[in-house]
Design brief:
three-stranded antiparallel β-sheet; alpha+beta; single chain; binds benzoic acid; 10 strands
Length: 238
Amino acid sequence: METTSEVQSVSMPRIGDKAPSFRAMTTQGEIVFPDQYAGSWVILFSHPADFTPVCTSEFITFASMEEQFAKANCKLVGLSVDGLYSHIAWLRTIKEKIEFRGMKNVEVKFPLIEDITMEVAKKYGMIQPGESTTKAVRAVFVIDPKGIIRAIIYYPLSLGRNFDELYRIVLALQTADAFGVATPADWRPGDDVIVPPPGSCGVAQERMAGKEDMHCYDWFFCTKKLDKETVLKTILRE
Ligand code: BEZ
């Protein structure tokens, strides 16, 4: 019998990689990934199983935020190692019977991939045998409009995700791209952003002398204001 330390090598996509491609059947018909999503951000995420409590709370929360993500040009795609009929039955139950934190009659409109063979889950390193050999962990891949993986998070089976944080990640990445900046700890739109490090001693000197419109904690750590309205007007669609 195979122990977890002997398990075959698994592919784990990395930040900066092209998102591995696949064709799959989903609750919204067949998808061709990531080609079909070119031009959009997409969050590809896995969950362990249909008809389980943590996953149900997650789907209700994520589906309730789908419009919010759509305004940030970000689509959602789910996956679990379950069949299509199980997915359909579970999503019907969620809509018809479950109320969670005031969210009810929630229709999951984004595609949920059936992956009984684990083909897609294995491509994305979603099967982590120390946690489960048959269920996907709670993986999150944030993929940009060019099909490049920009952020990855893995959670264990027992831990429900923070979907406000996923939204924050999408906005922060888009802000970094649009304004050529980085975002500090706990950044939210409206907070100061980090400007790229100085490229010369002279620029470092100028920054420390306060000649630029920045706040410098030290020569290598300078921030500038970027107001919320400018950020949201640039990255959100109405
Ligand atoms: C859940 O979604 O509740 C769950 C799924 C698999 C293992 C543990 C919890």
